[in-house]
Design a protein that fits this description.
heterodimer, A: about 260 residues, alpha/beta, globular, B: about 260 residues, mainly alpha, MetI-like fold
């Protein structure tokens, strides 16, 4: 493993619900190296989205320690890019202005980043859509714009919470390839790539994208399995038909259903 | 031109119906022998509009001023209260029950009190219009400010954006269509308030004209006044609709 970027040590999280305390996560220990693409899969309500937010500092673990780039996370940290299940674009802003939003929120000069924003849009295949409003774009295109927004400030860490979950199956497969391309699977050395923590429901998506797949158990979420995806990169469409792809998918399926 | 032709295609039934109503009204009055003081004919109303002794310009001016004043007062106070409610839970707890109470009062019943407190004049009538029209603005402003996706707010937290910036860049633009939608109600309410105020206490204005025709049985003037009131009301409502299309074109179907 490369230099460690994310370190979770016996992280647990309990929150107060109307019916009493609910234990969402228990005993999560996980290390993610810089440049690694790690997917979290697990049943609904297993706390994988919560775990993502704990890494971002948006929610705080009740026990255990969380570090990102060696620093303890006790509040929201700025060096991350977030992509959610919905594009969450501001309806009244053009695509370009949406991509520039993080600069404005962080109090940086948005004008100075305009060239970068346009370059990101080009790379994401949204050239010519910079001045459109979000509603003029398809769901897949909106999600690409959201990815550009997450990349604007060049964060070392990308946190993606079921980003393709709302898209149709074909768009979804396209987006997976697109994400790997933008991630720099072909043109960047492993250390130069961003670290990605990717939450998904889809086993195939997790296998296709990841270096590692972390399988979580039902609530309270624990790590049920941590599988290395030793498939060659760059990943191609043909890979989905490979024997190794099927074997890894089956391993994840078994870990998910508790039949290993 | 194409816009005009689609408009005319959409509205010709309205125009035809309106013309038919006017014609049958005119016929009913002139052939049916309905007395003028009960129901004046459209032609008599037309005459009162343009050739009577009523000083329409000054009455129209007074009432228009009251309505516009009421509208902007309601809009300003409504938005300010809505922002206060959305800004802090403390202010929400303090203000909301009080506002709900004020809203349940029949505002018309307060009009005589305004006369005692403020006497005759434009301002109390403005205030009446504002009082009737401000509540929807408060509610819609507060709702619009709070209806922001939780993920979007997380984005603000990740970048450590100060609260005022979240309001300026995310919450307030988000609330704009809600506010404009409430202002359509306010536009109508401002008219009602101004006229009610004039009914109770006034020396000028379109509502005042209607009250004075009661004693003189000059019904055609009352009808003419009604037409002027609806002209002002429609103009204000139309202005809000146009403003909504101009300033919040992304928000279709929020009403």
């Amino acid at each position: 493993m490369n230099k460690e970027l994310i370190g979770l040590d016996r992280v647990g999280m309990t929150y107060e619900a109307a019916s009493g305390p609910v234990e969402a996560l228990a005993g999560i220990s996980l290390r993610v190296g810089a440049g690694e693409f790690v997917s979290l899969v697990g049943p609904s309500g297993c706390g994988k989205s919560t775990l993502l937010r704990i890494v971002a500092g948006l929610r705080l673990a009740t026990v255990g320690s969380v570090t990102v780039a060696g620093r303890a996370v006790r509040a929201p940290i700025p060096d991350i890019g977030m992509v959610f299940q919905a594009p969450v674009l501001l309806k009244w802003r053009s695509i370009l202005q949406n991509v520039l939003l993080p600069a404005e929120l962080a109090g940086q000069d948005a004008g100075a980043l305009q060239a970068r924003a346009e370059q990101l849009l080009d790379m994401a295949g949204l050239k010519g859509f910079a001045d459109k409003l979000p509603r003029e774009l398809s769901g897949g295109m909106q999600q690409r714009a959201a990815l550009c927004r997450a990349l604007l400030l060049d964060p070392p860490l990308l946190l993606m919470d079921e980003p393709f979950g709302a898209l149709d199956a074909m768009t979804r497969d396209d987006m997976a390839l697109e994400l790997l391309r933008i991630w720099g699977e072909r043109d960047l050395a492993r250390e130069a790539r961003k670290t990605v923590l990717f939450v998904t429901h889809s086993i195939a998506e997790a296998v296709f994208l990841s270096d590692r797949v972390v399988v979580m158990s039902p609530r309270p979420g624990r790590i049920a399995a941590d599988l290395l995806i030793d498939l060659p990169r760059p990943r191609t469409v043909e890979l989905r038909a490979a024997e190794a792809f099927g074997r890894l998918s089956l391993d994840i399926f078994r870990a998910l259903s508790g039949r290993s | 031109m194409t816009k005009f032709s689609t408009l005319s295609r959409q509205y010709w039934p309205t125009l035809v119906l309106f013309a038919l109503l006017l014609a049958s009204w005119q016929l009913a009055v002139s052939l049916g022998g309905i007395r003028e003081y009960l129901l004046p004919s459209p032609l008599a109303v037309w005459h009162a509009l343009w050739h009577g002794d009523t000083q329409w310009a000054q009455h129209l001016w007074t009432t228009t001023l009251e309505i516009i004043g009421a509208f902007f007062l309601a809009a300003g106070v409504g938005v300010a209260l809505g922002v206060a409610i959305a800004w802090s839970p403390l202010m929400a707890n303090a203000l909301v029950p009080f506002l709900v109470f004020v809203n349940t009062l029949p505002k018309v019943a307060i009009a005589p009190l305004f006369l005692i407190w403020m006497g005759y004049g434009i301002f109390p009538n403005m205030l009446m219009g504002a009082l009737i029209g401000f509540f929807p603005v408060v509610i819609n402003t507060a709702v619009g400010l709070s209806q922001v996706e939780a993920d979007m707010l997380d984005l603000g937290r990740v970048f450590n954006a100060p609260k005022w910036k979240i309001f300026a860049k995310i919450r307030i633009p988000n609330a704009l269509p809600y506010i404009l939608s409430a202002l359509k109600i306010t536009a109508t309410a401002a008219v009602v308030g101004a006229i009610v105020g004039e009914f109770v206490a006034s020396q000028k204005g379109l509502g005042y004209v209607i009250v004075t025709t009661q004693s003189s049985m000059n019904t055609s003037v009352a009808f003419a006044s009604l037409i002027w009131i609806s002209v002002v009301g429609l103009a204000l409502y139309g202005a809000v609709v146009v403003a909504a299309q101009l300033w919040a074109p992304w928000a279709e179907g929020i009403d």
